[in-house]
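Worked example 3 (structure in, sequence out).
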């Protein structure tokens, strides 16, 4: 009997050893390098090499050893999509996290990949099908425009999952998307168009109304180009910001230098208008008009959809050409290369009413990620965390609220949406971070808990630091809830607040 047990034990041991032995080579250098010969439709693997922990990539340091895979994807004859996929050589968490891009920039997002890799993720990023900033790549290359609009991200995701399946013994457990700005637009596009690609999606400050934002930024830039005296230099923007905060800070019941819901701030810049000549302490009539222009909501005269402006409180992020240099450049390139397809087109030719219609029609929902029908994504059980800073000077935060409300309407009420899609507005936060409000948070952990444990994020704690020390924490709340002060305790402590209806 004992001999039999011993025999069984020996057999078990042999099986265990066999499994371990079988498994080990898959995570060794040779297995990584063998990925170079992997046959994938529409994809050519151009690099498969182990990078050791501590090795440098650009200015970054690898937090763990990984298998670095680079590939070129050609879903169309004119496509040239570069991707990288990094596979932890050990300590893989069984999950995949794809990361997003910024503006029109054709560049693989190494920093975000490093962050995902450090958490044990297999991670991927694409250059979206072209190299470098700007949209000149699209001129005469409609297929490259499609690659940028949605195809590069989807193809990257499909290819990455195949490589992950080839490299690891264990199956992929969960797939995530994490992006902000253009990466937030990519996030929404995936949820709308390829609902099976990801189990969980983080959409930060999504540029989902890409053409509306381009029109708004060019509209402001056009006005300021015509009249230099109307520009709001940073000292005047600071003056305006101080007056806005002074007028609206306490509308939320807490005097903390941050306006919780700037839509309630009905500040009229005309109160700052100079009584006499221009001075540091006042705004000229032209500067008052500029401030109103930046806050203003325009309407697409054909679709009647509102193209929202910037919010009171965002003034410190404005440049003297309005919005930001990035918004202006992205807007100009949108019209020059994608709408008019004319490299000589310039901002002085812009006509808002005619050109916003033309921009949206020519886009035909290719780059814009405005489709509110998330039913397939939701029915699949996938989860979407959307967030946006109320002081974002780049992409109107009200566009995030508008989209969320359109999803609620399309799906038949907030009850149909709450279990799958939540929007977190961050008071005082700038574009994807920064700003005077709490602006640091861990959306990845919140999403992991929602997707993997079914624990929906009823609040997400955000913090703010000064000189490397956290000086305020505050819950971010699922829209339309806001963080309400309980009446006792420090207003710099998240525990003094609870998420509640406004
Ligand atoms: Ca306040």
């Amino acid at each position: 009997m004992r001999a039999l047990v011993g025999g069984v034990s020996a057999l078990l041991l042999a099986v265990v050893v066999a499994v371990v032995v079988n498994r080990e080579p898959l995570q060794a250098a040779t297995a990584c390098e063998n990925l170079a010969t992997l046959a994938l439709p529409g994809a050519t693997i151009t690099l498969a090499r182990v990078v050791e922990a501590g090795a440098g990539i650009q200015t970054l340091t690898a937090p763990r050893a990984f298998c670095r895979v680079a590939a070129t994807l050609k879903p169309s004859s004119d496509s040239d999509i570069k991707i990288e996929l990094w596979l932890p050589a050990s300590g893989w968490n069984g999950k995949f996290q794809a990361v997003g891009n910024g503006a029109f920039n054709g560049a693989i997002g190494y920093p975000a990949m490093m962050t995902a890799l450090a958490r044990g993720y297999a991670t991927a990023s694409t250059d979206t099908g072209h190299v470098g900033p700007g949209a000149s790549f699209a001129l005469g290359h409609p297929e490259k425009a499609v690659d940028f609009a949605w195809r590069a991200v989807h193809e990257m995701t499909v290819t990455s999952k195949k490589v992950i399946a080839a490299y690891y013994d264990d199956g992929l457990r969960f797939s995530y998307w994490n992006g902000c700005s253009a990466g937030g637009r990519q996030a929404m596009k995936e949820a709308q168009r390829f609902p099976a690609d990801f189990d969980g999606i983080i959409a930060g400050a999504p540029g989902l109304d890409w053409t509306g934002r381009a029109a708004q930024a060019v509209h402001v830039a056009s006005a300021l180009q015509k009249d230099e005296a109307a520009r709001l230099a940073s000292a005047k923007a600071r003056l305006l910001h101080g007056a806005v905060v002074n007028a609206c800070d306490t509308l939320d019941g807490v005097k903390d230098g941050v306006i919780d819901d700037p839509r309630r701030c009905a500040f009229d810049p005309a109160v700052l208008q100079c009584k006499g000549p221009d001075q540091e302490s006042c705004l000229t009539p032209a500067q008052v008009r500029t401030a109103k222009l930046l806050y203003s909501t325009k309407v697409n005269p054909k679709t009647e959809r509102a193209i929202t402006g910037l919010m009171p409180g965002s003034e410190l992020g404005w440049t003297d050409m309005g919005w930001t240099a990035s918004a202006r450049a992205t807007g100009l390139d949108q019209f020059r290369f994608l709408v008019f397809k004319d490299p000589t087109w310039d901002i002085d030719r812009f006509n808002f009413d005619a050109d916003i219609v033309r921009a949206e029609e020519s886009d035909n929902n290719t780059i814009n990620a405005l489709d509110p029908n998330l039913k397939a994504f939701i029915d699949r059980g996938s989860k979407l965390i959307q967030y946006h800073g109320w002081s974002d000077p780049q992409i109107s935060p009200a566009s995030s609220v508008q989209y969320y409300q359109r999803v609620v309407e399309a799906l038949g009420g907030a009850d149909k949406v709450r279990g799958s899609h939540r929007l977190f507005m961050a008071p005082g936060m700038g574009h994807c971070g920064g700003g005077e409000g709490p602006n640091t948070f861990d959306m990845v952990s919140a999403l992991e808990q929602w997707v993997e444990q079914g624990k929906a994020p009823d609040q997400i704690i955000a913090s703010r630091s000064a000189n490397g020390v956290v000086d305020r924490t505050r819950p971010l709340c699922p829209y339309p809830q806001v963080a309400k002060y309980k009446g006792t305790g420090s207003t710099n402590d998240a525990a003094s607040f609870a998420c509640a209806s406004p």
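Notes: The chain has two domains: 29-208+370-500, 212-363. The CA atoms of residues 440 and 468 lie 12 Å apart.
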